[in-house]
Design goal:
By secondary structure, the chain is mainly β. It is about 15% helix and about 40% strand.
């Protein structure tokens, strides 16, 4: 039996092509029971994955991406709060994996995907696209960041501040100074492992209660950092500034105050051009 494809409303076109992508994800291994309860409220046809150590996995991932359109270019930032889950009726197809095996891409079924619980985004057009195409629970926010860059100081520390926002009646983002959460990942000096985990399946549940699955291809490996050693406990920090809104409440419910991160993964698009340092060409002596 076959099912129709979900519609693609105007003016969107798929697939959506990223011109550049810079991303960091931080993973936490947690008690499965609170994860199951929260997941059931938003995605009743998904089951939270439980890895070989008996724990579930939640993540926060920040993205900065560029897209080129016929009218020019656009830049978007967003952060997702996700549970790693799979369609309940397909659970018998999944391999038994450890967290390290999963994050390095050992699940070739690609049924283990990100069930989005909350998405905060600074681009009204991307918010609409996420809601209408992929049933993402996507809401406005804005960001102040300090990221590793070939155009910045040497280092591998990521700092992301997420703040509240609204969308005005004319469709523009209106920034609110209220902070929602801060993330810091100090990855300097750590050795990473190449992780071929794409395509990554993203799950959503539409207003009619239908489960949607949308894969995202990433065209080079992620860099994964194993943070399970106690000596790395201080390398990441998550601060929730609005514990009573839905995003903050969800994070506090699943992570509490002291859960250390299990790992971090990053992706940064390679540069496609470089404007080099100028020099003084020889010229005629001035009179």
């Amino acid at each position: 039996m076959t099912a129709p494809l979900p519609p693609v409303p105007e003016p969107f076109q798929l697939p959506f092509h990223y011109g550049a992508l810079h991303q960091i994800g931080i993973d936490w291994l947690v008690d499965p029971e609170p994860v199951r309860k929260l997941l059931a409220q938003q995605h009743p046809d998904l089951t939270a994955a439980v890895f070989e150590d008996g724990q579930a996995l939640v993540s926060l991932n920040y993205q900065l991406y560029f897209a080129q359109y016929s009218f020019g270019g656009g830049t978007t930032q967003e952060i997702e709060f996700n549970v790693i889950a799979f369609p309940t009726h397909e659970g018998d197809r999944l391999p038994r994996l450890t967290y390290a095996q999963y994050v390095q891409g050992w699940d070739q079924t690609k049924l283990l995907g990100i069930a989005r619980l909350h998405v905060v985004c600074d681009n009204p057009f991307a918010i609409r696209a996420g809601q209408e195409l992929y049933a993402e629970p996507k809401h406005p926010g804005w960001f102040e960041v300090d990221l590793p860059s070939l155009n910045g100081p040497v280092g591998d520390t990521w700092t992301v501040q997420c703040k509240a926002a609204t969308i005005s009646p004319d469709g523009n983002l209106e920034k609110d100074p209220r902070p929602l959460l801060d993330i810091t990942a100090k990855l300097d000096g750590l050795t990473s492992t190449a992780a071929n985990s794409a395509p990554i399946t993203g799950y959503g549940t539409d207003p009619e209660g239908r489960l949607l699955a949308g894969p995202m291809n990433v065209y080079q490996p992620y860099r994964w950092y194993d943070l399970t050693s106690p000596e790395h406990a201080a390398r990441t920090r998550l601060t929730v500034h609005a514990p009573h809104d839905s995003l903050g409440h969800g994070i506090r419910t699943l992570l509490g105050d002291t859960t250390p991160a299990a790992g971090a993964w990053t992706y940064q698009s390679p540069p496609v051009a470089a404007h080099n340092r100028p020099y003084y060409p020889p010229t005629r002596p001035r009179p």
